[in-house]
Amino acid sequence: MRVFVTVGTQLPFDRLIAAVDRWAATADADVFAQTGSASYVPEHMAWKRIITGTEANDWIRTADLVVAHAGMGTILTRCETGLPIIVMPRRAELGEHRNEHQSATAKRLAHLPGLTVAENEVELFNQLRGFTPLATTRRMEAVASPMLLAAISEFIAVPRHAAANMNKGTTQ
Amino acid sequence: MTDKQKTTRILAVSSGGGHWIQLLRLRPAFADKHVTYASVGRSAAGDVAPAPYYEIPDANRAQKLKLIGLLLRLGWLVLRVRPDVVISTGAAPGYFAVRIGRMLGARTLFLDSIANAEELSLSANLARRHCDLVLTQWPDLAEQDGPQFRGSVL
């Protein structure tokens, strides 16, 4: 089983890296972690601080499991494959982010195909221990909702005065 | 009029990562238009080829010098492309792009990231005064005479 771990490049996320490393010590899995600015040094998995966007995309599209912070790029790209991803949100109070938006985002996206949320490192470790690779679930289409596409098409098509009226439309 | 003059020119700008992935999901709305893309990094060019792609510097609000570099690059790009419409999915590059675009007469749309489920991002809030349309992807964040909700990238 190939597992890809990613926490982006901007801020450290040692809790996630350490929990996966602890699991990797006993797991029968080939684990590679992109650790960013983490200070924790993994002992039981291969790792690099930074990889190219192309490398990251290859991993995200083909790994049997992805473990990630709640970064939208990773989440959307992965859910387009329908393959499983475990997301652990960063917590601002622990210095892992500037605000708590990852927690809110993760909760609201928990319905996406293949996505599981781990609230903390204990949940993450337990989910990893209980994980078995499954066949592809339903894939998410790689396009925005028809409603949004229609709104943007309309915006592109209409002249300025109409666009101004559009912005004053009803709020729902 | 030639065909080229009739085709609407769109400049689509975002920073990297999730902002870029969300911009890519809007592409069906750009069908039959002349779209120029700009984002951070080189690998993104491959996502939109053969459409023209320009790399812009990565910068956030804490990096003043880089922000100036970004501003100059986007100013040059808007002058070069002369877009009818500027569309952005954030963050700092998107804000600058819609501001410069509007100054030069383009219609401007800013779509706030789906990651902002509880409050609008700083760049979306800043963009409000400079955009013809600001969209949020969460109905709770829509306001009368403010950001509108018209669906999401999902």
UniProtKB/TrEMBL annotation, chain B:
InterPro entries: Oligosacch_biosynth_Alg14. Gene3D superfamilies: Glycogen Phosphorylase B. Its main location: endoplasmic reticulum. GO terms for biological process: dolichol-linked oligosaccharide biosynthetic process. It is a single-pass membrane protein. SUPFAM superfamilies: UDP-Glycosyltransferase/glycogen phosphorylase. It holds the Pfam family Alg14. The keyword Transmembrane applies. GO terms for molecular function: N-acetylglucosaminyldiphosphodolichol N-acetylglucosaminyltransferase activity. This is UDP-N-acetylglucosamine--LPS N-acetylglucosamine transferase.
